[in-house]
Amino acid sequence: MGSMCKINAAMSIWTRLSLFVLASSLCLCLCRAEDSAMENIVTEKKAEESHRQDSADLLVFILLLTLTILTIWLFKHRRFRFLHETGLAMIYGLLVGVVLRYAIHVPSDMSNVTLSCNVNASPATLLVNVSGKFYEYTLKGEISANEVNDIQDNEMLRKVTFDPEVFFNILLPPIIFHAGYSLKRRHFFRNLGSILAYAFVGTVVSCFIIGLVMYGCVTLMKQIGHLGGDFFFTDCLFFGAIVSATDPVTVLAIFNELHVDADLYALLFGESVLNDAVAVVLSSSIVAYQPEGDNTHTFEAMAMLKSFGIFLGVFSGSFALGVATGVVTALVTKFTKLRDFPLLETALFFLMSWSTFLLAEACGFTGVVAVLFCGMTQAHYTFNNLSPESQNRTKQLFELLNFLAENFIFSYMGLTLFTFHNHVFNPIFIVGAFLAVFLGRAGNIYPLSFLLNLGRRNKIGSNFQHMMMFAGLRGAMTFALSIRDTATYARQMMFSTTLLVVFFTVWICGGGTTQMLSCQKIRVGVDTDVENSIGPDGVERRSTKQESAWLFRIWYNFDHNYLKPILTHSGPPLTATLPACCGPLARCLTSPQAYENEGQLKDSDSDLILNDGDITLTYGDITVSTDATGAHTSGTPVGGVVVNSDEALDRELAFGDHELVIRGTRLVLPMDDSEPPLSLDSHRHRHKNETMS
Amino acid sequence: MGSMCKINAAMSIWTRLSLFVLASSLCLCLCRAEDSAMENIVTEKKAEESHRQDSADLLVFILLLTLTILTIWLFKHRRFRFLHETGLAMIYGLLVGVVLRYAIHVPSDMSNVTLSCNVNASPATLLVNVSGKFYEYTLKGEISANEVNDIQDNEMLRKVTFDPEVFFNILLPPIIFHAGYSLKRRHFFRNLGSILAYAFVGTVVSCFIIGLVMYGCVTLMKQIGHLGGDFFFTDCLFFGAIVSATDPVTVLAIFNELHVDADLYALLFGESVLNDAVAVVLSSSIVAYQPEGDNTHTFEAMAMLKSFGIFLGVFSGSFALGVATGVVTALVTKFTKLRDFPLLETALFFLMSWSTFLLAEACGFTGVVAVLFCGMTQAHYTFNNLSPESQNRTKQLFELLNFLAENFIFSYMGLTLFTFHNHVFNPIFIVGAFLAVFLGRAGNIYPLSFLLNLGRRNKIGSNFQHMMMFAGLRGAMTFALSIRDTATYARQMMFSTTLLVVFFTVWICGGGTTQMLSCQKIRVGVDTDVENSIGPDGVERRSTKQESAWLFRIWYNFDHNYLKPILTHSGPPLTATLPACCGPLARCLTSPQAYENEGQLKDSDSDLILNDGDITLTYGDITVSTDATGAHTSGTPVGGVVVNSDEALDRELAFGDHELVIRGTRLVLPMDDSEPPLSLDSHRHRHKNETMS
């Protein structure tokens, strides 16, 4: 039998993905059984029990989500507007967490974890010899010494926790992809410079401000002896990075319902979408900061440069992969007649988008960043190639996935407040964190807005700035980043504090959005086309050529003349725009429709393209084109003449924006009781009527 | 450090679900490292590599599926009809399997699995003490002694395999649910008795015939010394059970395109859908056969009764759970106004259907059986309560999931031919298996058809019987059941043989369907309403009252008068049909629309309900109602009079069946080159034209 070992059971601090992993166990009492059949039965029986427990765990979440859905409906039915669905999901998660923590006691079977074994290495797989039978074990994770004996009461709680990688591998990708796929590109590109500034520069600034404030806080705590473990500056920076990722879903939903200024919406939405990406890569870069030598937390220029290089490399690599997959999908949908088969087209679209994520992860980049840019590319190019049926199907599919994933994460957030067993709530740290978050947001918004306003014609007013300051809600990305690794004291404290930050911002800031809007005198119910032709000072803007950033014009021309013709069916045909030497290639890449529509093809999502008098409502909910007389038109270019991109750009900017700025799944709550709840159909009718009048 | 142990690496025979399980590993060379930070880095690095590998694995499958989709499109584009998409997916799987097996060699890192430990029990979790740090290990499974040293070359192959439970927990449920949700209930219920006979009696008969033939085969093999291990009668029966599950997707697709007789379609489809359920529970019951005493393979009446009891209990329990969830969903969608919010409604529908599966699994029943009956219930009741938008969304969602899951399974089937490392190909067994399958199918179809024809008015002709015999393809369920447990020699041999059976039936029988149809002189291009009013002998049937089985009539009355009014908005109102004592309850349960439509509400899926002269095309692709003059009508009862169910039944049977018998995702291939590929839109137009003319 060899040497006898004692194996002590322990509670793991790495939460386990218990979904569908076939874990067998044997009772100690049977360890001497010579009947292998009996052992097999018991093994299968225990596996069965484990599987049942896993199913029960998932069922808890399904019920949470179902409750959330029914309550959302109830709120809409009774016109409650003080609590958004994400805040609601969190509350339900809290309630279930309380129940699980204090009301349910599952007597755990302790006889199966009382062996210990001393070895001198921990390999990935371990083979254990029991009475001549070999059993294979997989390494789950490390357990901190102070938890080794603390198992009894936490068996149930351990069960209802997921491996943090579930968030990054299963839950976040649909959310991020949907954000990219439903991006309203008109205002996004119009404010591109500002958005990039806020997302990149602002996030880094916020990260450092928060890091510095927290470092001061932590130093103070160490002085007065309140710090229970190590907390280095890199940890502070890491905290700054993860908590700089904003997720203003609640605010954007309300903006959408109340038809707030489209630029404000675009700034907030664009910033949040991009700073999620920046935060992910930034946090990875900070974690990768590894100077040589024993002390891994001293400043070292080489290591910092390396981190910076990692940031650039991972971000651009993910960007490139995402765009590449989008481009491939666009080409495939352009050159095949898949549009005849919506099911095939939708399946292909879904698979290629999913493959972006896997490809990025397999190459060592960041999957969520890749899917973001993939989503944007798909929306800008591939969407035009899809059949209308597929357009609907893909939109609805990702809308549903986004809805389920988001509510799942927020429910889980509420749950972990009670089920996470390593919380470290430190009042000083918490207060410091709130202060730091406040200062970080302020240091992000105000200085940058000032600098941007030097260059912008359409200035970001101070009321907008205050609103953006207020709307810096934290959400799914921050949570996922903080729960990813809770091995050390520092990380645990950060996680606990992050939870509180998220709760506060979602409930308080989210709930107070409407009041803030009126307080800041931000106009609501804005009719976007009127709004554009009359500037904030009341002067009608006839030509907005000057306000389009140089960067935007360059991009627009390139996109209009080359990218769109290559990747979609739109004109002008490449045979006209490419030099003669590329003739064969141009003929190959140009689709027949591009010749028919020498001007711009009126894509169903043409948010950048207008013809005379056309009012095109872009993709979001409505894709109806009517000309000025109210008659329906589709796809007629301006007199059949090649419209050069400058004219097209001017026309587009002059006629203003008619885009419905809608983000994905946000539910529409009526402004007052007299309005019926806006559903998709009634929304369409309402806007059709508005347009016609 | 305690006692030193040696842990021998081994190749597990239980394939591991490597998706998203954070598995860390350390290099042996670092096992003495005193720098915990270095260890953490290495741990994270190895976890990262493991994650990358998992992503790469999934990517392989995504690419397989993408290739399959593009090839399907290409086939349709060029009108190739000899290979269906499932057969195609298998071929691609084979190709990739060959590449993985022979062309790719991944040098595996062996330094991390070379420790062994001798203990006297194998608990669920194992704590290993390495230099003072504790690592937790989970039991993965048992390893047979002969594989303990065989690890090197199979690292890559192990990676591209999935835990068999993935099939039952992730892939099969959408397929089975979709089968239930897209069931064409008219013909299903008309042939209910026959379908139940084939599914239950036929499957059991087939199981025993195959078991007996295999037992003879195996005995012969033992005599001539060709049997490499144990193979008991229970194993033979188990093989009979798993290989009795038919999955004629290919055949049904062709039937659909060519508009073959609807009854034949219903018989085949209904049988396949139900015998999957029966096979699952039957195989579990056989596995649960555990007589007392040392020899677990002798016949014992008590154990057999117990198995039978398990079969009944599990089947009815799963049935009850599935129906219950469907009923709850129907009630929720009936009494709330969720239909105003398609996203919420779709999400709720999806969650509740998924919860069926989890609930059944958590209670120890069979999830796939529960989702089948849940799907049927949802289609029959809940579907009527959904808004049109939600109806489309749910149909499309499950259609997509079904498509992806099915092609994934078939690709995987092709792949495992080369990547599974425990194949046991025994020519005698294989020949015996084919013979047994043939005999089992014959023993299922012919005797039962004879008996059923004694009671049926609409006899199952011999050509139908031959077609059903031929169309006994095996597919996803058989594969999943056989791969579920490949621990023993017997199971491995069964798995290998099952693969070959599936390959043969899908490629040969599936590919030969069209020829078989013409050979058996089975009519194609059948116009279902004409077909019904003129019986096979050419005599017009004016009243088909006599042919509806007594069972069907009872069911129809009960459903029409009570179940539909309770669960949907259809009439007659319960206040009329229930006794006076249930007055308050009836008023509570009756929806306002039921009063408006004193007769039958014209549900958009009313496949059992007709009003005078109405031709209702049921849900599948089209939900257009026109009356005899061609004008559109909707929901008008017959003169506002309460139609009793007998009259309704007569009318329904007399006017024949106009149901488009379409199963889910099956692609429509044109009959000849002159017809354009039928897409959803053109299909709709075609039938609208046919109806109008």
TrEMBL record, chains A, B:
Its main location: membrane. Residues 671-693 are annotated as: Disordered. Gene3D superfamilies: 6.10.140.1330. Pfam families: Na_H_Exchanger (PF00999). Residues 1-33 form the signal peptide. NCBIfam families: b_cpa1. One of its GO terms (cellular component) is plasma membrane. GO terms for biological process: regulation of intracellular pH; sodium ion import across plasma membrane. It is a multi-pass membrane protein. The chain crosses the membrane at residues 57-75, 87-104, 166-183, 195-221, 310-332, 352-376, 397-418, 424-443, 489-513. It comes from the Eukaryota. This is Sodium/hydrogen exchanger. Residues 68-518 form the Cation/H+ exchanger transmembrane domain. Residues 683-693 have a biased composition (Basic residues). Belongs to the monovalent cation:proton antiporter 1 (CPA1) transporter (TC 2.A.36) family. PANTHER family: SODIUM/HYDROGEN EXCHANGER (PTHR10110), SODIUM_HYDROGEN EXCHANGER 6 (PTHR10110:SF94). It comes from Cirrhinus molitorella. It is found in: Cell membrane; Recycling endosome membrane. GO terms for molecular function: potassium:proton antiporter activity; sodium:proton antiporter activity. Keywords: Antiport, Cell membrane, Endosome, Ion transport, Membrane, Signal, Sodium, Sodium transport, Transmembrane, Transmembrane helix, Transport.
